[in-house]
Structure formats: C-alpha cells, structure tokens
C-alpha cells in the first residue's frame, strides 16, 4: 500500500515537473518573440512574420497588430512632417521678395508723405509681424528636420545674458522697463546661439506683457546637475489652467489677443532647450507676474 502511494506521489511530482517545464519553455519562447518584435520596432525594422492563430498566441497577435499600427502611424506622421517642412520652406522662399518690397515701399511712403501716417505704420507693423512669423517657422522647420542642429559646448552664462541685454535695450527703454541681470561666472553646456534665441523669446514675452515702468529680472542659481536661469516679470501673469497650453504651437490666450505676436516663440524656446537636454518650468499668478525657469545642464569641469 505504501509503495503504491509512493509511486503515485512520484508520478504526480514528475508529471508536475514535466508540465511546468513544458509551459515554462513555451512562455519563454513567447517572451523572446515579443521582445524581438519590440526590438525590431524600436530599430524601425519590424519583421512581418506569420504568427500562429493558436489561442496561446493571442497576446503575440495583439502585440503584433498594435506594433504594426504604431509603425504605420509613425511612418505616415513622418511623411506628413516632411511635406509640411517642404511647404514651409517653399512659402518662405516665395514670400521673401514680396515682404522685402512691402518694407521698402512702406518706409518710402513714411518718409515722403505726411498724410496717412497711421495707416502706413499699421502696414509696416503687420509686415514685420508676417516676416517674424515666416522666419520663426523656417527656424522651427529646419530644427525639427535636423537641417539646423544644436552643438552643445562649455558656455558662460554671463556672455549670453549680455547678448540678451544688448538685444532688448531699445524695447526696455521705450517702455521704461528695468531689465536687471545678475552677475554670474557659472558655465553651462549648451549651444550659445540657439540658447540666446530661446531665452530671448522668453524675455521678449516678459517685456511685452509687463506694463510701462515695470521690472524684468534674470537670476541664476546652480544645482547639482543643472543651472537654473529664472526670468521674472511683474506683468499680467498667466492663469493656472493656461500654463500647460502656452508652449503649444500657435497658442495665444484670448486675454492677450490685442498684443502683437503669433504664438510660436515659447514653442520654439522649449524645442531648443529640450534639444540640449534641458527643460522649462513656469510659475505664475494672474495679475502678479510670471517666472520662467530654464534648466540647462551644468558644464562638467575638466
């Protein structure tokens, strides 16, 4: 009797080990196939092999269908992106001469005629706005397509801030705004030309939405891995629910519809900073001003 029981136990254990090994190997093979599919998808070389329709392969079939649809969507998105970039480039090329002519004739009319000065000023203002939009779109298109790439290197923050101050001297003087820059010897790793472009877009907004006689400050603080550049204004501020939207392409709040702008400056600024492994944070309160914090990787000491 005992021998029979022992025999049954041994058979049961061996059977369990067999079935465990069988299902383990099957799951292992399925896992390896799924991992291979994901690796190929990541590399952009998805293998479109036939998959068994067995019940056990339902997960594999679902994964393949999802990857196939994602792969196709990505391909279509890239093709649409290329079409848009080519269209922007063509528009920029075709509008270059007409915009230049509008500027020239507008300035001539302004000098030779004392009449209709308000209308002429409006024409020149709208022409500048159109030119800025076209140039911004071209920069963005070239950056997204990789034609223009950022080249990060050890850069002094002080030099970039001096460039920004020089860029906005006239604007702050016209609005009687105080632009305060901190004195710093900190270094960051970035492309100075593109970073000045990004910081300049933020400073431009700060000046634009700060009332005459207001203040705009730029402060710098060092962290373990980043340097934070704060651009602080005491302007109109931003509603809390709008903060996630302000970096959207062409986004403009209804509350600033009367102000000049096309809603691409902050979008371009974020793209530039992110391309350099940095990021931007915003804190603001309506009527109390805003703080745009730009975080850039700290330059490694040799």
TrEMBL record:
<protein>
    <recommendedName>
        <fullName>histidine kinase</fullName>
        <ecNumber>2.7.13.3</ecNumber>
    </recommendedName>
</protein>
<feature type="transmembrane region" description="Helical">
    <location>
        <begin position="6"/>
        <end position="24"/>
    </location>
</feature>
<dbReference type="InterPro" id="IPR036097">
    <property type="entry name" value="HisK_dim/P_sf"/>
</dbReference>
<dbReference type="Pfam" id="PF02518">
    <property type="entry name" value="HATPase_c"/>
</dbReference>
<dbReference type="Pfam" id="PF00512">
    <property type="entry name" value="HisKA"/>
</dbReference>
<keyword id="KW-0902">Two-component regulatory system</keyword>
<dbReference type="GO" id="GO:0016020">
    <property type="term" value="C:membrane"/>
</dbReference>
<dbReference type="InterPro" id="IPR004358">
    <property type="entry name" value="Sig_transdc_His_kin-like_C"/>
</dbReference>
<keyword id="KW-0597">Phosphoprotein</keyword>
<dbReference type="InterPro" id="IPR003594">
    <property type="entry name" value="HATPase_dom"/>
</dbReference>
<dbReference type="GO" id="GO:0000155">
    <property type="term" value="F:phosphorelay sensor kinase activity"/>
</dbReference>
<keyword id="KW-0472">Membrane</keyword>
<dbReference type="InterPro" id="IPR005467">
    <property type="entry name" value="His_kinase_dom"/>
</dbReference>
<keyword id="KW-1133">Transmembrane helix</keyword>
<keyword id="KW-0418">Kinase</keyword>
<dbReference type="InterPro" id="IPR050736">
    <property type="entry name" value="Sensor_HK_Regulatory"/>
</dbReference>
<dbReference type="InterPro" id="IPR036890">
    <property type="entry name" value="HATPase_C_sf"/>
</dbReference>
<dbReference type="InterPro" id="IPR003661">
    <property type="entry name" value="HisK_dim/P_dom"/>
</dbReference>
<keyword id="KW-0812">Transmembrane</keyword>
<feature type="domain" description="Histidine kinase">
    <location>
        <begin position="90"/>
        <end position="300"/>
    </location>
</feature>
<keyword id="KW-0808">Transferase</keyword>
């Amino acid at each position: 009797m005992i021998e029979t029981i022992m025999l049954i136990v041994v058979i049961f254990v061996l059977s369990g080990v067999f079935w465990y090994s069988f299902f383990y190997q099957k799951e292992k093979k399925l896992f390896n196939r799924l991992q291979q599919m994901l690796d190929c998808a990541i590399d952009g070389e998805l293998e479109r092999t036939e998959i068994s329709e067995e019940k056990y392969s339902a997960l594999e079939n679902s994964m393949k269908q999802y990857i196939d649809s994602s792969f196709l969507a990505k391909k279509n998105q890239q093709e649409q992106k290329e079409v848009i970039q080519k269209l922007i480039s063509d528009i920029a090329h075709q509008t270059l001469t007409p915009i230049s002519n509008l500027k020239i004739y507008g300035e001539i009319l302004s000098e030779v005629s004392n009449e209709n000065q308000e209308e002429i000023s409006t024409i020149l203002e709208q022409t500048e706005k159109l030119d800025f939009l076209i140039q911004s779109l071209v920069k963005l298109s070239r950056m997204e397509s990789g034609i223009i790439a950022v080249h990060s290197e050890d850069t002094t923050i002080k030099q970039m801030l001096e460039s920004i101050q020089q860029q906005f001297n006239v604007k702050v003087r016209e609005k009687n705004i105080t632009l305060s820059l901190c004195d710093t010897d900190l270094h960051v790793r970035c492309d100075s030309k593109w970073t000045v472009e990004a910081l300049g877009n933020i400073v431009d907004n700060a000046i634009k939405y700060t009332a005459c006689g207001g203040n705009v400050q730029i402060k710098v603080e060092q962290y373990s891995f980043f340097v934070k550049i704060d651009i602080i204004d005491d302007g109109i501020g931003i509603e809390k629910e709008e903060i996630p939207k302000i970096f959207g392409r062409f986004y403009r709040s209804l509350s600033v519809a009367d102000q000049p702008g096309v809603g691409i400056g902050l979008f371009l600024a974020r793209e530039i900073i992110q391309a350099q492994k940095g990021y931007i944070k915003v804190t603001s309160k309506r009527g109390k001003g805003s703080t745009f914090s730009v975080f850039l990787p700290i330059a490694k000491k040799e």
